[in-house]
Amino acid sequence: MDIKVSELFVNYIERLGAEYVFGIPGAHILPLYDAIYNSPIKSVLAKHEQGASFMAGGYAQVSGKPGVCIATAGPGATNLVTGLANAYMDNLPVLALTGETPTYSFGKGALQESSGEGSCINQHDLFRGITKYNSLLQRTDYLLTVLRKTTGILLSKNPGPVLLSLPYNVLKETVDGSLLDNINFDPGYPLSETLLPADAMVSLINNAVHPVVIAGYGTIASDAEQAISDFCVKSNIPVATTLKARGVLSETSDLSLGVLGITSNEPAFRYITEKADLLIIAGASFGERTSYNWNNELIKGKKIIQIDNNRNCLNKVFTADIALDADVKKVFSRLNEKVRTHIINPKDPKEVKTCKSKYLSQDTKDNGFMLVSNFLNMLNDYFNGDVLIFDDNIIYMQRFCHVLKSRSYFPNSGISSLGHAVPAAIGAKLAAEKPVIAILGDGGFQMCCMEIMTAVNCNIPITIILLNNASLGLVRKNQFYNYAGRFIASEFINPDYRKLAEAFNIEYFRVASQAEAEGVFQTADFMDKINLVELILDKDEFPQYSSGR
What we know:
Elements: E1 2-4, H1 5-16, E2 20-23, H2 30-36, E3 42-45, H3 49-63, E4 67-71, H4 75-78, H5 81-89, E5 94-100, H6 123-127, E6 133-136, H7 143-154, E7 162-167, H8 168-171, E8 174-176, H9 199-207, E9 211-215, H10 217-221, H11 225-235, E10 239-241, E11 256-259, H12 268-274, E12 278-282, E13 303-308, E14 322-325, H13 328-340, H14 349-361, H15 370-383, E15 388-391, H16 395-400, E16 409-411, H17 421-429, E17 436-441, H18 442-448, H19 452-458, E18 463-468, H20 473-482, H21 497-504, E19 507-511, H22 514-523, E20 531-536
Parallel strand pairs: 2-3, 2-4, 4-5, 5-7, 6-7, 9-10, 9-12, 10-11, 12-13, 13-14, 15-16, 15-17, 17-18, 18-20, 19-20
Antiparallel strand pairs: 1-8
């Protein structure tokens, strides 16, 4: 049976498993919205297309399904750039569908045209570097090819964003509705059963005195948390994680070294540089943050085993003794077999505990941040890990607070864009039964606070922890340490956030003391209400770390 292209795309979204679309309609994309009208898909009207793309990313992170965002032609599409760049850096399956002027108007100067014809902008070139695939669909005769490629990327083991630009007249054309039956929506990626850790790998582990597992986000993407936890507990090998992999092993465990990262004051860096003789780097790309600006002391004099299913990450910034292009979960499952059969020998647990205690005792505290430190630890105690936290600030959660469970902490560490946490939390909440929290500074908050009204309109309960120091804290810190305190373009006057919360008709809490912090957890409804918690910080207190810039 023939159906309109707009209806086919709605059916396609349903086949992908997405239950929501996030966006803002406009004239050129209205045929698609009209097709959604009678579908089970729910439309979430954002206040800015950037917010819509962040919402789609948050939904994808928590649901495991592709997130879908929709924008009209021209400025609607260009407003998606930062959110899609974020999805690209974090390998999130986000499908962006944008409107376009009718094909018969291409090159004539049509309003909001972005086909690249004549003197108009070229949307394909604009998104080329931040999508894994993007296409301007000018005809329907190759629609199947486009959707097959799109599906393969969105459902792959290394997904990323896809953008399809849909001209107004093409959306109104008809195609055979059975076209989608020719697309494989369950591709599967079977792993070789012959994959076994090489004898050399087992030998390196057995010969090491102080091996360390460095677990990256790839361990979570491959669902390897349990396999890694089992291996490390049975073999008494400590674990450090990247920022995005926090909780692979509970950070309260004796074997957890915490986060390896430039904004951390956990013992991982000191343990690895001063003690470790073997690094098992699993699903971690060893980027700037994790590697402390590629500090050679982390790898100097050590044997290295690297495991990653992304071949581009292998030997990218160092040369591994063994580099495995393989699934992390599969490798650690086989390593567990080696432990069970005594082919891999456990390490001395007393030695691990003694060394960790030594480095923990050297840990330093930023005494000017006791209020935020206490508040975040109260947050930890209150939820015991059963919460989803989207964190744009990163620094305070990394320095002061343990993460107890994987898939509970979502730092904005890829493109590190301000204004991400609130819309991402909104998208995530639609896929989660747990409480969802957004943490961000007052600078980033003012880039996205309009999306609170999206949460109000759609009755999506989230809690926002707003860190108020009346400044762009990271910029001001760098100006203090590196530019002799020559502060410029980093300070501002905030609005009255109590009145702002009243205008949004949401709950408001101000925290400037320990008693007020305790009051939040005594009275706030984290499950069913939208809460704004304003946490007051001293703008002249700076965390004790250096990014080198």
